[in-house]
């Protein structure tokens, strides 16, 4: 029997609009933006203060659904630097351990200061740093492992967002030979439910260890200790698991500054890790020292279409002055078992599926604010460098660039406090020489194996400050044989923003740079370079 259905045009139109609204809403609700190089805020616009911690998945106590919990340290100087990034601050004053929660990794809600300073400063102010949280199934409690002074403090709570109370301090002397860990993170293997402390040797940090977390002698403690690396000094030790393989990561001993991202791999969490005692540099991380950060922690987005591993780099900006924002999150790609670092300033993540893509407002310039390098370049000390990271400088006339500190041009300028009111970070590009010179400084941008430089129109922007004495000074971009330039014809005593708009980029390649022909001691400073698709 057929049922006759009569729908009016208005009804059909209404239903069509509802369906389209639902589709648009679903896309907006799922594909959300993650932005680096900014100070992050909660969904209600309040500052996120979370350094040296980690993101962990625990069930919500009310709904039972898995939720992301982000723990980290709130340092008093983080607020100061956020309000005035023109000053690099010398101290790290512990305020609290914070906890934020999210279901999509983008919209974060402040839960509480789950470990307050009065709990940890019982014997006066002390260092409180790297930390992580593990669920202890036997006790149905949550344990936080925290670097505390020269030992490891363990605190416990009945819930992920509850107050963590002092449980015990453990001295690592008998286990590794130093009372403290160098750097540490907590890793939970979702396949086994077991949690581990990943940490380095306290002096020199030239060894890395793995210890399982559990119950020993009626206390939450470390059950064992396995040395998995011995060699070059490393810090920022952290670990993730992908396709049943363990990836151990660490950074150089550069204090608060950015670093290569080094790694080892193993089929078992306790090793053996290969290459034995010889960490590899992750592909894609060399061009700007892992988006001007050091290894902090990783989290895994296990979507229904793919698993995405996210690198969470610490940018200790308030202590090093190396850019804006404390947390730099970049997605990894894999060529088989080999990880690849995608240095992006803006990208979109769909937590439900695990799919990510580059955002429309991504800046394709690497090290555009010239903060990746620790010292004046060329640098004769570790790391020995002739060129700025991510950039090439060619001398067409003038002194040769090299380790001759008397004659070689210095390629970067250390910004003054007043300059940092206008430009980002401590450093900028310096184009100058003691003799008459002709110089080309440039960066070639190409499609990577995982991010395509799309055909289209782009805008190139930079901030410049320059003296007199140039017969030619220009910013340029070259793509598909077509060159566009911006001629700087006048002296600029103050920083000036310049831009080239409607740049046709084709063929997945563009060269961006600066040409200068000047008299001895003429100078041009360049900072905050960006290439963004229109």
Automatic annotation (TrEMBL):
One of its GO terms (biological process) is carbohydrate metabolic process. Coiled coil: none annotated. Keywords: Glycosidase, Hydrolase. One of its GO terms (molecular function) is hydrolase activity, hydrolyzing O-glycosyl compounds. Pfam families: Glyco_hydro_43. CDD domains: GH43_RcAra43A-like. The keyword Signal does not apply. Gene3D superfamilies: Galactose-binding domain-like (2.60.120.260), Glycosyl hydrolase domain, family 43 (2.115.10.20). InterPro entries: Glyco_hydro_43 (IPR006710), Glyco_hydro_beta-prop_sf (IPR023296). The keyword Glycosyltransferase does not apply. Belongs to the glycosyl hydrolase 43 family. This is Beta-xylosidase. It comes from Flavobacterium bizetiae.
């Amino acid at each position: 029997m057929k049922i006759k259905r009569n729908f009016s045009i208005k009804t059909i139109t209404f239903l069509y609009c509802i369906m389209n609204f639902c589709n648009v809403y679903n896309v907006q609700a799922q594909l959300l933006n993650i932005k680096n190089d900014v100070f992050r805020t909660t969904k209600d616009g309040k500052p996120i203060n979370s350094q040296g911690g980690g993101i962990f998945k625990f069930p919500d106590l009310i709904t039972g659904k898995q939720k992301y919990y982000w723990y980290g340290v709130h340092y008093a100087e983080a607020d100061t630097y956020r309000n005035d990034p023109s000053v690099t601050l010398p101290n790290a004053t512990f305020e609290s351990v914070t906890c934020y929660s999210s279901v999509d990794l983008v919209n974060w809600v402040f839960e509480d200061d789950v470990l307050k300073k009065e709990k940890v400063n019982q014997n006066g102010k002390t260092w409180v740093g790297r930390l992580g949280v593990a669920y202890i199934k036997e006790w149905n409690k949550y344990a936080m492992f925290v670097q505390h002074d020269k030992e490891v403090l363990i605190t416990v709570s009945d819930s992920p967002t509850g107050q963590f109370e002092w449980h015990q301090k453990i001295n690592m002397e008998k286990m590794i030979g130093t009372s403290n860990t160098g750097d540490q993170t907590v890793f939970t293997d979702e396949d086994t439910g077991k949690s581990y402390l990943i940490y380095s040797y306290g002096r020199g940090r030239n060894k890395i260890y793995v210890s399982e977390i559990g119950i020993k002698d009626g206390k939450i403690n470390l059950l064992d200790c396995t040395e998995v690396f011995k060699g070059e000094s490393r810090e920022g030790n952290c670990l993730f698991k992908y396709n049943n393989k363990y990836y151990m990561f660490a950074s150089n001993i550069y204090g608060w500054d950015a670093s290569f991202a080094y790694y080892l791999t193993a089929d078992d969490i306790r090793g053996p890790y290969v290459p034995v005692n010889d960490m590899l540099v992750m592909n894609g991380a060399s061009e700007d020292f892992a988006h001007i950060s050091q290894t902090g922690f990783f989290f895994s987005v296990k979507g229904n279409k793919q698993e995405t591993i996210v690198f969470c780099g610490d940018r200790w900006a308030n202590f090093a002055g190396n850019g804006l924002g404390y947390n730099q999150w970049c997605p990894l790609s894999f060529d088989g078992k080999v990880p690849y670092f995608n240095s992006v300033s803006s990208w979109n993540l769909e937590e439900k599926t695990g799919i990510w893509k580059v955002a429309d407002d991504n800046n394709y310039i690497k090290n555009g604010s010239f903060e990746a390098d620790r010292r004046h370049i060329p640098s004769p000390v570790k790391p020995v460098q002739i060129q700025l990271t991510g950039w090439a400088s060619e001398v067409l006339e003038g002194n040769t660039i090299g380790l001759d500190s008397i004659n070689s041009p210095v390629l970067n300028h250390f910004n003054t406090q007043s300059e940092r009111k206008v430009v980002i970070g401590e450093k900028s590009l310096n184009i100058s020489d003691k003799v008459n010179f002709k110089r080309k400084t440039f960066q070639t941008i190409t499609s990577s194996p995982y991010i395509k430089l799309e055909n289209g129109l782009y805008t190139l922007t930079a901030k410049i400050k320059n003296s007199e004495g140039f017969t030619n000074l220009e910013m340029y971009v070259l793509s598909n044989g077509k060159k566009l330039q911006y001629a700087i014809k006048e002296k600029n005593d103050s920083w000036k923003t310049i831009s080239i708009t409607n740049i046709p980029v084709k063929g997945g390649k563009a060269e961006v740079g600066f040409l200068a022909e000047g008299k001895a001691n003429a100078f041009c400073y360049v900072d905050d370079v960006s290439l963004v698709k229109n």
